[in-house]
């Protein structure tokens, strides 16, 4: 159904995950190092990239950053450590989501499905949204703030759309988790907060004092009309 | 056992013993000195007195001789006029007869030995203690008059002086003994001060201040301080390496687990193609793998708190929201949540991830051992927010109520049997996390039967920074 690039240095894990994702109907591309993975991606982009954080040579964080530089493809980082630091660093490098080893197949495929669905779902909604000076062309996936076009990843774009359909209304973190990542990501507010931070860096003039995408204390976020 | 032994041995503390030692030493020294001083003074004063008495006797005898030589005055007439002081008497022996200056005094008062010595021609003195008060008797022969001259005088004055000296010495001795006791007490205190420091630091380390060390303040205590600090360092290194080992093992297990999990997931796709036994075996592997993964995660979680990792990112957490979400996220049919809607928000300060883990583990425990959670409540008790989870099981025996929060404890009673696919760490993790938040977790009987698990967390006053604020 989709083309998945798997960058993982452990042969056995790579083989098993490829078997699993192939059984789900995905088309698999594999790389054992970060360098190979980036090369493979530049030759033939994938629909989803799965990156292990602990790689020989350039690590998963750097791979994520480099891919993010050339593409807005959904990236899932896979960590062997579930410490907050790795997860946060991975998300800050530009990942859309994360998984901690070991994980069950259902979890992995649900996340891939969610990321792919997000990339296509916008087309069913109203073609254009305008909140304040933020203009969203839902169909084209383009965003203009004032008269400056901004380049968003698919996840960032999705968050902005979720906030834009109810301008001035607060959307809670859990609601964003449910709607944007749409599987059981119960209570993991880091995912939301880090994406909001990245989004602000792109749509705000002064990200430290947001004027468009504001935090409503204890409730969530809203887009100021 | 060793503790009891030590307790029996040290009926007296070190300080008491030092104080007693100093006191005893001071008493010994002061009493010896006092007695010696008293003896020396006594002998000196008595000798002095005796010399004086002999000289006085010669002088008096000489005067008497002058009186008698001057005229025909008889001895009996001159005798009473002799000046011998207010308490002295004179006795004279002349030609076998005794003459006395006082009717109260006769030659029978004189000791025979003294009289014997004097009559044989040598002067002599002797102290008498026969009467009501001590006296001194002096005898000198006066050959020119053909008499032997005796004087008897009271020693009461000397006795008084000696008594005064004795009293002063006694007071001094007592004062020295007291000073000795004081010095002993003070020295004991000084000596034990470094040990008190050791005890204070040891207690601080024991209660979690793992970076505290003894400071070296005294050259003599250098070895104690450095060996104490070295001991704490090595103990801590040991604890850290134990905790790291558990973490490392769990990490190392993750890669093969990931492979096995993915492979089993692939196999699950072929389950319908497997013969009956094969499918059963696959189900077993699937179930146990899930449990194994959970155990690895739980071990990591608990070894992290063993390593002393403080809860990260303490933020205000609305427990009512968290409880509602946890109840909703629970796989079973939704559990009713009761909370006082009108009250102030149930905000505590904590690490949301860990607090979620606590709730999830309690719900999981209810599921596994208590026939499922039947109610979740949130309440306020004094300064605490209390979360209650009631289950439909048979409750927990009193004897087990502490034990079930220990690692890998297996409930033994009322059907809370082991197995059930748990890791044996869920309640232990809940306990660790709650304790790390300064709270308490315990179990009671639920009003409707079953067990009621309670978590009490200290509340915080909501400050201006507000709940859930993460900043830009």
Q: Could you characterize the architecture of this molecule?
A:
The complex is a heterodimer of chains A (225) and B (472). Chain A is α/β, with parallel strands linked by helices and 225 residues long. Chain A has helices spanning 11-23, 34-43, 60-70, 84-92, 105-121, 154-164, 173-181, 189-203, and strands at residues 3-7, 27-31, 48-52, 75-79, 97-100, 128-131, 134-137, 142-145, 148-150, 171-172, 213-216, 220-223. In chain A, strand 3 (48-52), helix 3 (60-70) and strand 4 (75-79) form a beta-alpha-beta unit. Chain A is globular, with a radius of gyration of 17 Å. By secondary structure, chain B is an alpha+beta fold. Chain B has three domains: 16-160, PAS domain (Beta-Lactamase, 2-Layer Sandwich), CATH 3.30.450; 221-306, Signal transduction histidine kinase, dimerisation/phosphotransfer (DHp) domain (Helix Hairpins, Orthogonal Bundle), CATH 1.10.287; 315-458, Histidine kinase-like ATPase, C-terminal domain (Heat Shock Protein 90). Chain B contains ten helices and twelve strands. Chain B has helices at 2-9, 14-70, 75-78, 112-119, 156-206, 222-268, 276-306, 319-329, 352-369, 426-436; strands spanning 89-94, 97-100, 124-128, 135-142, 147-154, 315-318, 337-338, 347-350, 373-381, 384-391, 440-445, 451-458. In chain B, strands 2-1-5-4-3 form a five-stranded antiparallel β-sheet, sandwiched between helices. A five-stranded mixed β-sheet of chain B has the order 7-9-10-12-11. In chain B, strand 1 (89-94) and strand 2 (97-100) form a beta hairpin. In chain B, helix 2 (14-70) runs antiparallel to helix 5 (156-206), helix 6 (222-268) packs antiparallel against helix 7 (276-306) and helix 8 crosses helix 9. The longest helix of chain B is centred in the first third of the chain and has 57 residues, at 14-70. Chain B is rod-shaped. The model of chain B is unreliable at 1-8, 412-419 and 462-472 (pLDDT under 50). The A-B interface holds A 10, 12-13, 15-17, 19-20, 23, 80-82, 84, 101-106, 173-174, 184, 186-187, 189, 193, 197, 200, 207-210, 215, 217-219 and B 251, 254-263, 265-266, 268-269, 290, 293, 296-297, 300, 312-313, 316, 318, 322, 325-326, 329, 352-353, 356, 466-472.
